[in-house]
Amino acid sequence: MNIFLFMTLLLIQRSHGVIYELNDTEYNKMPPVFHLEAYGSCVHEPGGVYCTVELKLVSDGPSELMTMIEEYSLRREMHFNHSRLHRGVCVTRTCKDYLSQNTSADLHLVLEGCLNDTFWKQYKLKSKLTTEVLCNDLDNKVDIDYGDIAVAVICLAILMLNIVGSLYDFLFLSHNESNGNKFLMCFSIRCNWKRLVACSTDGPDSRLRRLKGLNGLRAISIIIVIMEHSILPFVISPDDAHEFERKYYNIIYHVLIDGALVIQTFFVMSGCLLSYNLQLHAEKRHMNWTMIPKGIIRRWLRLTPSYAVVLAITTTWLRFAGSGPLWQSTVGIEVKDCRRDGWLNLIYLNNYIDVSQCMPQTWYIASDMQLYAAGLIILTLATTATARKIVLSVMFVVSLIIPACHTYIQNLDAGLIISPEVARHTFFKDRNFNYSYKRGHTNLSSSILGLALGILIYNLQKNEFNVEKYKKFKLVYWATLPAMLVILPSGSFFYFFQNSPSLYLKAIYSGVARPMFGSIIVLIILGMALKLENIYRGILEWNGWTSPARISYSAYILHVLFVRSLTGTRTTLIHVSLAYIVSVF
Ligand SMILES: *[C@@H]1O[C@H](CO)[C@@H](O)[C@H](O)[C@H]1NC(C)=O
Ligand SMILES: *[C@@H]1O[C@H](CO)[C@@H](O)[C@H](O)[C@H]1NC(C)=O
Ligand SMILES: *[C@@H]1O[C@H](CO)[C@@H](O)[C@H](O)[C@H]1NC(C)=O
Ligand SMILES: *[C@@H]1O[C@H](CO)[C@@H](O)[C@H](O)[C@H]1NC(C)=O
């Protein structure tokens, strides 16, 4: 009853001067947020120039329409900013008059005048361009520079090695592969394929087999991450913005829209594997500080080559890979930023700068690297059980306070709000994403939980822990999945009910949300490692997850490139429906 009252109170408390909903008649009075004129027929005309711009609507005098637009946009969590419009214009056709007035045409001025007049005629509003004018005309030459050539040479060299390695494998070694040239065998496609589809995950130690379910967890999480990123084309060019906004009022979509916490799974797994493997290692060799640089360098060498290849291609040849009205704003910008800041990606510091849109999804890889280094330092310096307990507890408390402080001091939201406007600009300049979500130190809590979990599992295995008497907690264990589905969209409860909660509440939530989700993952992994039950464990330890888990890293690095290119080569707006989202996915 109390909960019901509380909900009603939340529902009633609406802010003044904000329009929460509009019916279609009213909605259609506003100029559409997205509009693209026909592209193909424009650029194929002789001398045809097609430009895309973003512009903002302004009004000097009082305007009823402008007030409505502003008030509707104030509900920024669920609505686009309707005073910020995206237009694709065939300049040589639509703005012909403005071109002929001034032959020394500066496209910026031409478009400004042309669009301003169009909006004035139709809506009695004025407009100003807010971004640079990005134009495609087929006369644009492909100018290849030294960087392009270098990357092409490297890629060809890798390809050649693959061919040579495969041939070597096929022709000379098909029967006994144990004594082949190790270096060439690394590039053999047959050999790599075999390793990719091999079922067993036999590590150096049979105890590692109890962590086999991490494959399932990894594969499922990466699938969810990719599914979320598949929404990108729909945010950048929806044909019906109203329909898109309405999806935000459907709680089902919020599991998809607010899945940002899923990434914590990877932090927990990464911490767990680090501490577990470190303890296996410590059985044979003495631990000392030299392991810190060695471990970091080994990890860098393992992660960087494939990452560097994708980065190099993004920085160079990708810019020639397509065209279209959306190409420059989705792909062109990324290429430009990678040329300027791509080197930061290679030293895994790109999550601490906010001006780059170079492979934005790799913030996670940078964060994970930083947390790996932190975990390695903690565990190699604090070697006794007591010391570890104390250090990890203190760090955990600190890790709860850090995000809360960020939220409180910088006045952020409770979690990452993937609002239409934020997603439309791929999180660029979003304060929640930049100051809290993507940093390394703000994600410390799940990593610490992972480290503790690795130590716990190792000790339980060593003491031959008997799980029988805990089997009655199966129900609690099974509750983890529903709990996950509640916690995942819980951040949206802060804005779903149309009120603005106090900053304290937001700060507390931002402190505990990540460790709460992390703890559930910890429970799942623990139950799986101890064979508490067979349902979740059976699903997660399914052999079919082994190969997807092995390519999850490559998939993570690559998938945004495909989603972006797919969006960039569109010449029309796209209809928003679950079926299309699934097909992009
Ligand atoms: C939409 O809302 C306006 C103002 O609230 C009202 O006048 C109009 O009749 C409504 N239209 C429909 C189709 O409901
Ligand atoms: C919408 O965009 C305009 C232009 O960039 C900006 O002035 C305004 O503050 C934005 N409105 C909201 C609610 O963010
Ligand atoms: C033509 O454009 C130039 C700048 O591109 C401007 O200086 C000049 O005044 C314009 N002329 C007319 C007639 O609008
Ligand atoms: C936009 O159009 C209005 C009305 O025609 C005009 O007064 C204003 O100067 C124009 N602004 C620009 C930047 O062209």
From TrEMBL:
It holds the Pfam family Acyl_transf_3. Residues 1-17 form the signal peptide. Keywords: Membrane, Signal, Transmembrane, Transmembrane helix. The keyword Nucleotide-binding does not apply. Residues 212-573 form the Acyltransferase domain. The chain crosses the membrane at residues 149-173, 216-236, 251-278, 299-320, 363-383, 390-409, 442-460, 475-496, 508-530. It comes from the Eukaryota. One of its GO terms (molecular function) is acyltransferase activity, transferring groups other than amino-acyl groups. This is Acyltransferase 3 domain-containing protein. It comes from Parnassius mnemosyne (clouded apollo).
